[in-house]
Amino acid sequence: MTAATDQAREQLKAAMARLAGGDRAALEQVYRMTSVKLFGICLRILGDRKEAEDALQEVYVNLWRRADRYDPQRASPIAWLAVFARNRAIDRLRSGRVQREAAPLEAAAEVADAAPLAEDLLIDAERKARVHHCLGELDDNQRDNIRAAFFDGRTYADLAEAQGVPLGTMKSWIRRGMQRLKTCLEGAE
Amino acid sequence: MTERDQLAAEYALGLLEGEDLLAARGRMANEPDFAAQVAFWESRLAPLLDEIGGAVPDEALWQRIAAEIETAPGGEVVSLQARLRFWQRAAAGAAMAAVGSVALLVLQPAPGPAEPALPGPLVASIPIGDTPLRLGVTYLPDRQEMLISASGLTADGVHDHELWLVPPQGELRSLGVVRPGREASMALDPDLADLIQDGAQMVLTREPLGGKPVGQAAGPVVAQGAFRTVG
Q1: Is B214 helix (H, G, I), strand (E, B) or coil?
Q2: CA B77, CA B83: separation in Å to the nearest integer?
Q3: Any chain A CB within 8 A of the CB of B50?
Q4: Is A20 an interface residue toward B (CB < 8 Å)?
Q5: pLDDT value at position B194?
Q6: Is residue B95 domain-shared with residue B147, that is, in the same domain?
Q7: CB–CB of B68 and A22 under 8 A?
Q8: Using the 8-state DSSP alphabet, how is residue B221 labeled?
Q9: Residue B157 carries which DSSP code?
Q10: Which of A38-47, A165-174, A180-189 has the lowest mean pLDDT?
Q11: B223 min Cα distance to partner chain A (Å)
Q12: What band does A188 get if pLDDT is binned at 50, 70 and 90?
């Protein structure tokens, strides 16, 4: 990890702490440092700029209202924010506000994967290596569907339909995959 | 995996919809073990999110966010409210009941020797005219911070209301313009903070928009109340 990344992480951590103190300038700093990353996540899940911007707005307004939810003991700020943004986007998708076309997975994948920013805040190099290793241990049908659920917000029903398999088959693929994944991830404790 | 762990994994991954999703949300709120399982998956999968490239939102988005939070209390106010609720429960109602009984405003003689520092917060609940509305004021001595809650009030567009501390001697000291519908927290200057003690009186005056103009007398008193120790 570069010194610049380290510095950015420390700045973000400090801004998050000031945010919990009700400092509006801190919210703007958090926004400037993280909105490109979080918008990429919302856009990937929602597949629509307008929806993704609405989701992003919810993320930061929620962050402002409940800044005390972030616990620095439990996660790095960027990991926590990234998960928070993904969850908001998924909630939005499930709430029915977004009438997403049944776009093919390939099309969705093209939306935002290009060109990660140079100043990207890396989430956690060690855990990243581990989760990649553990996903690599899975069968193709387990891994591909778990990834599609994670990156594109697909439900069991979406995935079964996309793959042309019965719902029960899809559930059993993914559940077995999750079991193996969990055993592997826990092995890293 | 147990049924619980499996549902937690499915929820974290985002696979659920319909009744299964509702059930998982309910367990998130009510079962710490379930929430811990979800947190496990979230933290372990989070690094995958680095694979998603960034995208630049519209420049106007920050302005929208800034405008929305302008009307929302921030983290500190929320945490002050949480502390206030705690103390309100702890006060067993007795002190709070006394807050409503407001004597006529009389300038009081200077108090005797200074009392020892009070650790607990002071609160005032100021009734507004003959309406059921109240202005809530909380002062935290340990932090010299004050929270003013005017959440039930609405602006008339013509007047503002200014809150004043009535010291034992000398002129009224402004505690700021009350913003209707808002919660606001503020730090107090030490010399002003020293004046806030059990029994300290406040008045609310009606002023032109923006508060009392410099060089003019304060407007009419529309409400009054006193701080009481609750801690």
Answers
A1: coil
A2: 10
A3: yes
A4: yes
A5: 85
A6: yes
A7: no
A8: E
A9: S
A10: A180-189
A11: 29
A12: low
Cβ of A116 within 8 Å of Cβ of B53? The answer is: yes
Say whether A150 and B39 touch across the interface (CB within 8 A). no
Q: Which of B20, B25, B51, B52 to mutate to test the interface with A (most CBs of A within 10 A)?
A: B52
Residue B229 corresponds to which tokens in the numbers above? Answer: 């120790």
Nearest CB neighbour to A39, from listed B17, B55, B64: B55
Q: Would the CB atoms of B75 and A24 count as touching at under 8 Å?
A: no
Q: Quick check: B148 contacting A, CB < 8 Å?
A: no
Q: Is B42 on the interface with A (CB under 8 A)?
A: yes
Counting DSSP H helices and E strands in chain B, the numbers are: 7, 9
Distance between CA atoms of residues A159 and A169, nearest Å: 10
For the CA atoms of B182, B188, B192, B196, the dihedral, rounded to the nearest 10 degrees, stands at: 70
Cβ pairs A/B, distance under 8 A: 181
Contact status of B158 with chain A (Cβ, < 8 Å) = no
Same domain, B205 and B162: yes
CATH number of the domain enclosing B174: 2.60.40
- Lowest-pLDDT choice from A14-18, A60-64, A130-134, B29-33: B29-33
Q: Is B76 on the interface with A (CB under 8 A)?
A: yes
Sign of the dihedral defined by the CA atoms of residues B115, B119, B124, B125, in that order: negative
The interface predicted TM-score (ipTM) is 0.87
Q: Which of A65, A15, A26, A70 is nearest to B77 (CA)?
A: A65
User: Which residues lie closer than 8 Å to A56 by C-beta, 6 or more apart?
Assistant: A35, A38, A39, A42, A85, B57, B61
pTM assigned to the model: 0.60
Residue B115 belongs to domain spanning: 75-229
Residue whose C-alpha is closest to residue A56's, from A85, A15, A17, A33: A85
Structural domains of chain A in order of their starting residue, each with its CATH number? 1-108 (1.10.1740.10), 124-189 (1.10.10.10)
A41, B115, B136, B150 from A152: Cα distances, Å: 9, 63, 47, 43
